[in-house]
Write a structure and sequence with these properties.
Helices cover 16% and strands 51% of the residues. By secondary structure, it is α+β, with helices and mostly antiparallel strands. The termini are far apart.
């Protein structure tokens, strides 16, 4: 009986399949095929669009900003710099990735619905303190084509405070001194995009 158990272990154990690589391959296959299926289309119906777009917009946390995006298939990688009127100096530097979703295209060859993820660094140098914030953002949006070269993008979602550093320059003499600390806030944006 003991030898039969030993024999079974010798002959059965080599047949055991490690499931982790198998699941990893299925996962990679799924995420490599889904974009192709979602964006499967007749190539003769696709209008070729330029690779680089400029943008001017107003949003949170990017504030009033200008920037550019570079298109790679259904992705657009962008950077921008922004500011807003304030008592001190206020500057934002942001990077984002916009990805097209759904199959429908407008008359100018662009898929109007998109998702956006990004990161934004905000530096505020005020009279009493210096604040540095880092925000992550997730938004869903729609692009309204005005012509072949100009469009409006309207999106909304959430922004997440990833870090905050504060340096006190001098004590505030204000009787109202309340710190707002909300790690998750609404994030909206309206941008004009144009081909360069």
């Amino acid at each position: 009986m003991h030898s039969l158990k030993h024999l079974c272990l010798i002959h059965i154990c080599p047949m055991v399949i490690d499931i982790k690589p198998f699941l990893m391959n299925i996962f990679l296959l799924f995420f490599s095929l889904v974009p192709q299926i979602l964006h499967a289309e007749d190539k003769s119906q696709v209008v070729e669009v330029p690779k680089v777009r400029g943008l001017i917009g107003c949003s949170l946390p990017e504030l009033l900003h200008v920037g550019a995006r570079y298109r790679i298939n259904h992705l657009e990688l962008g950077v921008n710099v922004g500011s807003a009127p304030s008592n001190g100096s206020l500057l934002t530097l942001s990077a984002d990735c916009l990805f097209r979703i759904f199959l429908t295209r407008n008359d100018y060859g662009q898929t109007p619905w998109y998702g956006k993820i990004g990161i934004s660094a905000l530096h505020e140098d005020g009279e009493f303190e210096i604040n540095d914030y880092t925000y992550g953002l997730k938004r869903l949006g729609h692009e309204f084509a005005l012509s072949k070269t100009i469009a409006l993008q309207l999106d909304g979602g959430l922004m997440f405070e990833l870090s905050h550093q504060e340096i006190q320059k001098k004590p505030s003499n204000s009787w109202f001194n309340f710190d707002f600390d909300f790690p998750i806030l609404p994030s909206t944006g309206l941008s004009t995009v144009f081909y360069l």
